Amino acid sequence: MEKTRYSEEELQEFKEIILKKLENAKGEFKTLSSQIRDEDETGDSSNNNYLTLDDGADTFEKENLNQLAGHQMKFIKNLEAALVRIENGTYGVCKTSGKLIPKERLRIVPHATQTVEAKLKR
Question: Which residues, listed in sequence order, are joined to residue 93 by a DSSP beta bridge?
C-alpha cells in the first residue's frame, strides 16, 4: 500500500528545517529592509535638476534591494504556509496529484506544494 501522509516524526524533521530557513529568511529580510531604510535616509534631497550617473546607480540599487526584499517576503510567507500545512496534516502532499512529494525535494524546497512531475506539467 502506498503511503499517503508523512509520520509525525517525519513532519517534525521538516518543521525543524522550515523553522531554520524561516529564521534565516527573516534575518535576511531585516538586513534588506535596513539597507533600504538607510538608502532612503541618505538619499540626496538637493534641488539639482540634473540626474547624474550616481543618481541612476542609486535608483537601480534601491529598486534591486526592493525586489530582493519582495522575494524574501514571499519566501517567508511560503515557509509560514508550509508550517500551517504541517499543523493541519496536509504537508508533503502534492496539491495537483495528491501523491507524496519526495523527502529529497522537501528537504531542498521545504515549501514545495507539488511534485516535480506535477510542476512540469503546468
Answer: 100
pLDDT in tens, 21-36: 999 999 999 999 998 8
Q: Which residues contact 65 (CB under 8 A, 6 or more apart)?
A: 32, 35, 36, 39
What is the pLDDT, as a whole number, of residue 47? Answer: 45
Low-confidence ranges of the chain (pLDDT < 50): 44-48
- What residues contact 15, with CB distance under 8 A and at least 6 apart? 83, 86
The radius of gyration computed from the CA coordinates of the chain, to the nearest angstrom, equals 20
- Residue 97 to residues 4, 56, 79, 82, 116, Cα–Cα distance (Å): 11, 47, 21, 18, 11
What is the number of residues in the chain?
122
- How far lies 4's CA from each of 15, 16, 57, 90, in Å? 18, 21, 52, 10
**Total-model pTM:** 0.80
Would you list the domain boundaries of the chain?
8-43+51-89
